[in-house]
Specification:
Blueprint (H helix, E strand, L loop, with lengths): L1 H4 L4 H24 L5 H4 L5 H29 L8 H17 L6 H8 L1
Length: 116
């Protein structure tokens, strides 16, 4: 209909075909490189943009869960009977660094409390 009305030109149609070609190639690359457990989330995506948005949502959800799990581990972490103090402090520092990398800051006070 657009051809008859003059609203769709050969140039526009060619550009759309080229865009779809690039979109499909990018979608194929993502599908071939992600973990298969995410395929069920992406199977109904019609464009790369929707596929990317779905992946962002899944990643953000996993990040929130990981943050919570890591915080819980930090607060429940205790020194083992056979563990020396320096290795325990190193483990606490490593956990605190991971939390800081996730955007969850730990205070020196909370680290000292772990050592007591």
């Amino acid at each position: 209909m657009g051809i008859v009305e003059g609203t769709e030109t050969l140039e526009a149609a060619a550009a759309e075909r080229e865009w779809k070609k690039h979109d499909n190639i990018a979608m194929m690359l993502i599908c071939s490189s992600i973990d298969k457990k995410y395929m069920s989330v992406l199977v109904n995506c019609k464009t790369l943009a929707t596929m990317w948005l779905c992946l962002i949502i899944v990643h953000e959800q996993n990040s929130r869960e990981n943050n919570h799990i890591m915080q819980q581990r930090f607060f429940e972490f205790q020194m083992k009977p056979a563990q020396d103090m320096s290795s325990f402090i190193a483990a606490v520092e490593a956990m605190a660094a991971q939390l800081n990398d996730m955007g969850k800051s730990t205070t020196d006070k909370s680290k000292v409390k772990k050592a007591l």
